Amino acid sequence: MTGRAVLLPARPTAEQRSVLLDLVATAGESAGHPVLSEAQRSALLGPSGTGDDEGTLIRAAVYDDRAVASGRPLGMAQALPAPPDGHFAVELVVDPGAAEPVEVHTELLAAVDEQVARRGGGTVRVWATWADGADDRWAHEAGFDHERDLLQLRCGLPLPPDGRPPLSTRPFRPGRDEEAWLRANNRAFAGHPEQGGWTLATLRGREAASWFDPAGFRLHDEGGTVAAWCWTKVHDRSDPPMGEIYVIGVDPDFQGRGWGRALTRAGLDWLAGAGLSVGMLYVDAANRAAVGLYRSLGFSADHTDRAYRRVVAPKEPSG
Fold it and tell me: Which domains does the chain have, with CATH numbers?
């Protein structure tokens, strides 16, 4: 492949965005599953508080001569800065028709590394969806270490009753609950690479998403304080349609009360009431307690998303 990587603007034109979204759609149709996470897709669609600012987000694409003529890249990479630990979360999309996809990977990662180095260096974390042995091989050859596995678990809905009293929850109130929830969330997920360090802009971006439904964002109050929550998300275009437990959290002041099972059931019960017959969630494979809890509720593994990491040194100033 005679190709070259070029940087793309953090805020692309409507035409550029359309071309990139078409690439993402084509790759997803070929793979049979989404190829970008929610945060990365939101950043591609437009500014949403996920780091899509000029000077922070890194976006690159690889073109060969034919791709330049058509305007369609062979692949693209997005790197979102994550404030809690200063890393860059990277996802790659490669055209399924690319003759040499590994070389496209290499060019994209080199372009990301160059920009990270210019910004003082840091950890580059690349996510592979539906990871398999091929991902392990290219990651190893590129000098990445296997860091983390994220399991997608699924279960049938509705859950059978378990005889335990339910945890009372209420719907999220847009325009009223943002600050209280952000405080609880950032305390609960302090240092977490994806869920920690949210801002009001981040939350507003999710509220603006087509899938957002405040009725499915279930909050549990204690003494007038947001103490815990189970945020759900409906994937009505998946096959089959699924209801996701998007985020479960408990404010540190209220942890240790055994609310995990009750919060999960509250979310799944709401999803079943909304007509969903399949429940889904993601959990870190290393979190054995959580995996055990979810399996006891009837969840089983569907696939694994995998994170690989390497450290990029800062670029020495010339001269």
Answer: 3-150+306-312 (3.40.630.30), 158-276 (3.40.630.30)
